[in-house]
Structure formats: structure tokens, C-alpha cells
Amino acid sequence: MRALVVLAIWIVFVVGFGEGGRSAGAAVCSVPQLISGAAMVAGWIEPSCSPDPRVAVRIVGSADDPTADTGTALEEVGGAWAEAIGAGEQVVDGRDEDTLVRRWRGPGGATVETVTTVTGGHTWTIAASLALAPFLEDTARSLG
């Protein structure tokens, strides 16, 4: 008798905007075995669990968003995710005069990153798209 063994690697990302962003973060704790990466845009949540240390998290906000605080609150939320996955020291990158990136490197190459743009309000901006595409690609490659 022969047996066929199939090994499937699931690489699942959850991406959300506003309250959907909060839901994307909550999904990491709800089904940690399924989530490889979470992106929270214009809405975020601190982790309510000890997520899988290989999960990658990206948080994107605009400084002029009237519904979300991108100042110290965004740094604190990023720091909370970094601590939850066991990531190292924060690195700050002033990508350009309009974009501030904070990054924490975690085990296995996973990262927590916050991206704050000066303008954009409470909308899905081009800057948000530009921040997410490399995040998804890089995370998929590191896990695949």
C-alpha cells in the first residue's frame, strides 16, 4: 500500500483598513497558526496574546488622520507587537521628509514596522500601497 504525503505551507496575510485594520490585528491572536502577516492601515490594535514569533506586522497611518493617533500611540502599538513576537531594538528611518518608518526585527526575519506619512487623512493612500507591497513580498519569501 502506498501513501501520499502532502506538505502544505500556508502563507496567509490579513490586511485591513480602519476597523478592518483592528480586525486584522485581532486575527493574529484568534488563529495564530494560520496568520503569517498582518497589515493594519488607519486602524490598529495592540496584541492580546503571545503571537507566533514568526508573524510579520505592518502598521500604516497618516499624521493628519482625524480618527487615529499616529504620534506616540503608533510607536507604542508597534513596540507592543515587537515585544509580543520577541523582536529586537527599534530602528528609525526617515525614509523621506514625508515618511517616518520604525522597524523592529524579530526572530526568523519577521519584522514589525510602523509607517507614518504626513498627509493622507483617513484614506487608503498610495503611500499605504507602497508600504504594503514589499512587506507582503518580503514576508512571503522569508517564510516560503
Account of the protein in words:
The protein has 144 residues and is of the alpha/beta class. The chain is 31% helix and 28% strand. The chain contains 3 helices and 6 strands, in the order βαββαβββα. The protein has helices spanning 19-30, 72-85, 126-143, and strands spanning 12-17, 35-41, 56-62, 90-96, 99-105, 111-117. The protein has a 6-stranded mixed beta sheet with strand order 1-2-3-6-5-4, sandwiched between helices. A hairpin with a 2-residue loop joins β4 and β5. The chain is globular, with a radius of gyration of 16 Å. 38% of the residues are buried.
Strand content: 25-35%
What is the strand arrangement across the widest sheet? 1-2-3-6-5-4
Oligomer: single chain
Mean pLDDT: 82
The low-confidence parts are: none
Q: Please give the number of β-strands.
A: 6
Biggest sheet overview: 6 strands, mixed
Helix content: 25-40%
Count of helical stretches: 3
**Structural class, from secondary structure content?**
alpha/beta
Q: Give the overall silhouette.
A: globular
**H/E series, N to C?**
EHEEHEEEH
End-to-end C-alpha gap: 31 Å
If you compute it from the alpha carbons, what radius of gyration comes out, rounded to the nearest whole angstrom?
16 Å
